[in-house]
From TrEMBL:
Gene Ontology cellular component annotations, sorted alphabetically: plasma membrane
Pfam families xrefs: ig
Keyword Transferase: no
Entry protein name: Immunoglobulin domain-containing protein
Immunoglobulin domain ranges (all copies): 34-116, 127-216
UniProt-listed SMART domains: IG
Organism: Muntiacus muntjak (Barking deer)
Signal peptide range in chain numbering: 1-21
Entries under InterPro entries matching the protein: Ig-like_dom_sf (IPR036179), Ig-like_fold (IPR013783), Ig-like_Receptors_ImmuneReg (IPR050412), Ig_sub (IPR003599), Immunoglobulin_dom (IPR013151)
Keywords of the record: Disulfide bond, Immunoglobulin domain, Signal
Gene Ontology biological process: immune response-regulating signaling pathway
Length: 225
């Protein structure tokens, strides 16, 4: 009787593991940041781990090897990070938390949290000017007296950004030129640039002043709302 009972229990345990494995295979979480993964120095950001299941308890991990005491332990639904310092900049992952089975947790894809305002803002300018004919091109230049080796150009209300290594010109300033075009309605809008250095990938300068790129067609200006 006992061997039979042990066999049944063993079979049930293996089936449970297979079920948990199947669930884990398709229940990979995702990690998001609100209001944005770009966080000004001293502000806060809320990190939320999303699951297909109703489970809301998760672990948060900073993947670059630095430890933050407030990340220790488990979190329910979301976690507010901040006021952020340079130490908070980096890559994060989350995984669901359960006591059984302990080896089937899947991590989310990494989410990069960028802290801005670490360095003085660069300058920005548009050449030959901010008014551009439809189908034409414009060059946006970011430049700074600081020794940035990377500039990031960001269009407001867009998740994308461009980046380029610095170019040095007379006077020792660092600069990068971004060519945008042929111009469409999606190209128009407000642009800002940030400066950074290779040793501090997730630490950026304060944003530059804005430059508004406007498309003109048949002598009339068309602005994006």
């Amino acid at each position: 009787m006992w061997p039979t009972l042990l066999s049944v229990l063993s079979l049930g345990f293996c089936v449970s593991l297979r079920i948990w494995a199947a669930v884990g295979e398709y229940d990979k979480p995702s990690l998001s940041a609100w209001p944005s993964p770009m966080v000004p120095l001293g502000q806060t950001v809320t990190l939320r781990c999303h699951f297909r299941s109703r489970l809301k308890i998760f672990r948060l991990i900073k993947t670059d090897g630095t430890s933050l005491s407030e990340l220790q332990g488990i979190h329910f639904n979301n976690f507010t990070l901040g006021p952020v310092t340079r130490e908070h900049a980096g890559s994060y992952k989350c995984s669901r938390f359960s006591r059984f089975p302990p080896l089937l947790h899947r991590h989310s894809d990494p989410l990069q949290i960028v802290v801005t305002g670490v360095f003085t803002k660069p300058a920005i300018s548009a050449h030959p000017g901010p008014l551009v004919r439809a189908g034409g091109n414009v060059t946006i230049r970011c430049h700074s007296p600081l020794s940035f080796d990377k500039f990031i150009l960001h269009q407001e209300n867009s998740t994308g950004h461009f980046q380029r290594h610095r170019e040095t010109f007379t006077g020792g300033h660092a600069a990068a030129d971004f060519s945008i075009g042929p111009m469409t309605s999606g190209s128009a809008g407000t642009y800002r640039c940030y400066g950074s250095v290779s040793h501090y990938t997730y630490e950026w300068s304060a944003p530059s002043d804005p430059v508004d790129i406007v498309i003109t067609e048949q002598g009339k200006e068309k602005r994006t709302e």
